[in-house]
Design a protein that fits this description.
Shape: globular
Oligomer: single chain
CATH topology: Rossmann fold
Order of helices and strands: EEEEEEEHEHEHEHHHHHHEHEH
Distance between the termini: 17 Å
Mean pLDDT: 85
CATH class: Alpha Beta
């Protein structure tokens, strides 16, 4: 599929056009004002219709001071995928999970954008990306979307940083385009069929009640504010507002529920096969530097998930943060930043295989 390029002045939020970064912005590279558009399969309904309401972020400005970044859009099959693109240098691609969005990576973006080009997408249905009610919100579709973004931005020699669902999405994309990825930095995730599903997740899968709680009442995202962190005092009102901002309206929560529904409970589920294929392919990435950083009090991606992932990356550098939970970056960003920085600097000059030199 060939892409057509179109200039854009900004994107809509709160009923106003937010301008894309100026040409002299210190955290913007020349040419990033382009929006890439592809032929459409999923056309949004007109603004205001229930099938695809126009998306606006809530007016609460408190959290916006924690998110001081320029916004960019890429068009995938007629829908708008939002992403951040900060700084210059070798790219860091930060891939979020559910029910978070690019806001989750804010502390790492600020820490590394003076040395690297930091690209942080919002999955379709999440963050500031479009939120169609009818869409194939599957792991495979999210992988394809991420591969499209990487190819359209022509990211090379990138470092993949991934968390939660961002793990199988990011690692799945790395397997589809291994020549573009140099090294992964992986946080609490699972890139394999789930060996167990916690009861708190199973409760969200119950017919009628589960959908009503997750989609109708935003219970999944709200519960994560206290279930996913061990240092709840860090989740100030502004941080909580930022994490919830894209999902305050019921019509904007379809992807949250569909992520939960995409967790395979049996081998018959299509995503079980996708996860099995990802795990089978991980050893092909084991020749490159890898860092695993884990919140050991995570009740969802327990330490056994770390050990299973480490089997695929036997040479990985592992950091176990004993007092951190699932939202490990919220709990321990001040320790993670120097760990990552030292790893990135030390592996910067690592030799790249000849067959990965060009995409």
């Amino acid at each position: 599929m060939h892409s057509a390029l179109a200039y854009a002045s900004g994107f809509q939020t709160n009923g106003q056009t937010v301008p894309l970064p100026a040409a002299d912005s210190p955290h913007r590279r020349r040419g990033r004002r382009l929006i890439y558009s592809c032929c459409s399969r999923y056309r949004p309904a007109p603004s205001g219709l229930s099938g695809f309401p126009e998306y606006r972020m809530p007016p609460d400005d408190d959290w916006r001071t924690l998110y001081p970044f320029d916004s960019h859009l890429v068009r995938l099959d007629g829908l708008r995928m939002h992403f951040l693109d900060e700084g210059d240098g070798r790219p860091l691609l930060m891939v979020h999970g559910n029910p978070t969005w690019s806001f989750y990576w804010r502390n790492l973006i600020v820490a590394f954008r003076d040395r690297y080009r930091v690209v942080v997408p919002d999955h379709m249905g999440c963050g500031m990306s479009d939120k169609p009610a009818v869409y194939p919100y599957t792991l495979q579709q999210h992988i394809e979307n991420l591969v499209s973004l990487v190819e359209q931005l022509d990211l090379r020699h990138l470092t993949l940083c991934c968390h939660d669902w961002g793990g199988p999405i990011g690692l799945g994309a790395a397997l589809e385009a291994p020549q573009r990825d140099d090294r992964p930095v992986v946080f609490n995730t699972g890139a394999f069929p789930p060996p167990y599903v916690p009861w708190r997740i199973l409760a969200c899968r119950t017919p009628v009640l589960g959908r009503w709680a997750v989609h109708g009442c935003n219970a999944f995202a709200r519960a994560a504010l206290w279930m996913a962190t061990e240092k709840r005092e860090r989740l100030t009102p502004a941080v909580r507002a930022g994490l919830l901002a894209p999902y305050v309206h019921r019509v904007h929560r379809a992807a949250i529920y569909r992520f939960v529904a995409d967790i395979p409970l049996s081998t018959r589920h299509p995503t079980h096969r996708t996860l099995a294929q990802i795990e089978a392919g991980l050893p092909s990435l084991a020749d490159r530097p890898c860092q695993l950083i884990w919140g050991m009090k995570d009740w969802c991606f327990r330490p056994q998930c770390l050990e299973r992932l480490a089997e695929s990356f036997p040479s990985a550098e592992i950091h176990r943060l004993e007092d951190a939970g699932h939202y490990v970056i919220e709990d321990a960003h001040e320790r993670i930043i120097p760990l990552m920085g030292e790893f990135l600097q030390r592996t910067e000059c690592a030799e790249t295989k000849d067959d990965r030199d060009t995409p």
